[in-house]
Amino acid sequence: MVFKCQEDSFLKQYTTKIVSCEYATQDRVATDVDIATGGDVCPVRGFNVVCEDTILFPEGGGQPCDYGTINGMPVRSVLRKGNTAVHFVESGTSFEEGAEVHQSLDWDRRLDHMQQHSGQHLITALFDREFKYDTTSWSLGSNVSYIQLNTPHLISRESLDLIERQANELIREGRPVSVVLVDPEVDQEFQDARAPRGLPKDHEGLARVVRIEGIESNMCCGTHVTDLSQLQCIKLLFAEKVKTNVLVNFVVGERVLRKLGEVFQREQQLTATLKGGAQQHLELAQKLQQNVKATRKSFLQLLKDFATVEAERLDDLSMAERPKYFSLHRRDGIEVDFIHTFLRHAPEEIFYFLTVSEGVAAGSSAKGHLVLRGEPALVQEIGPKFLELLEGKGNGKEGSFQGKINNLTKLPECIELLESHFKPKKPIEPKPVSGS
Left, alpha or beta for 413 (phi > 0: left; psi -120 to 50: alpha)? Predict the structure, then answer.
């Protein structure tokens, strides 16, 4: 069956009748609030509605379904089942069989889908004409779409510019786009139609072929513009190699304008941040990157110097002055070199509990790294306890224990545990003996 949306892709309002209506539920897409709060996402209640005809396109051919309303109630999805289109309508009341209803289309979504889909047909045809690359699949994304080309060779920017230039020339010409119905069983009618996926197994009757005048014919169930000028323009963003294929990412029509707006906004933000115009952005960013690299190198050297000084301070103490244990915790970055440098210069006789983390405040739950060194039996006893408190993983051997930690809020409890172990034990006083 050819639906009304396929006969006239520009029809925005339509009156039809209900064929069937059955109670149904649909999973609701989790929002940012749902994810942040960890709350349960309750299913949406409604009805699966079949109408005599529809202007709401059912998902298929790589094109997502349309949205809209039926009698003012939101249509959340449309799926094709055989020759029918099943609309999931979010509604508290059902629709009577045979009742007349009014369908309304979300036009902005339809126009976007038509522009991307017709644009894909044009890009596919030009890659085939110029380079003999077959399009094996395509994806209509929410922001950027892509076609997958059957070639192992990465496509150069020059080749992308060639296809882009030819596509936009045809758009300026306003080449007509038409839809014809052909019989798949009649070779003479069907021989010039590209059919990469073939017809669905449950397809019945005539097949739709979308034709761009003088460019190509492509079997397709989707909604399309009526001439290429309605695409406005095409921009091929970039090509990327995926296994033995190449993906060409593109935007068409209104998406080009949105993409330009996003890029310009980022350009303004970079100008304010880098203190220089767009022509200087790359140079200024590279200079900033070099400065950060040099600063980091100096910072790491300072950390090592500090670790060496701290270790030598302990080493300078006499044996009688040296503590039984030493605890040191740095929160200025996960730089394990600090710990390794410290231990290389630190005296052996002391038990060490050392951590580094990216948290800047005491009690932070930031991730970090832990190292214990000392008497082997104590290290093996206390290491797992510390990891449990600090929510980490690790292991040890021969008087050394290390691991990655995820929560420093229990660090004071670890220190208390260590202090209680080394705290001097009170001598047991003998009980007085009574005389006879």
Answer: alpha
Q: In whole angstroms, what is the distance from residue 77 CA to residue 70 CA?
A: 12
The pLDDT tens digits for 154-203 are: 999 999 999 999 999 999 999 999 999 887 666 545 455 555 545 555 55
Q: Which two tokens stand for residue 30?
A: 């989790």
Cα 42 off chain centre by: 23
What confidence category does residue 30 fall into, taking pLDDT thresholds of 50, 70 and 90? low
Residue 234, exposed/middle/buried by CB under 10 A (0-12, 13-18, 19+)?
buried
Which residue matches tokens 């906004």? Answer: 265
* CA angle (308, 309, 311) in 5-degree steps: 65
Residue at token pair 């690299």? 293
* Six token digits for residue 133: 């690359």
Q: What is the pLDDT of residues 324-335, one digit of tens each?
A: 999 999 888 778
The residue type found at 98 is G
Tokens of 197: 């996926």
Strand order in the sheet with 207-212: 177-182, 207-212, 216-219
Residue 133, H or E segment: none
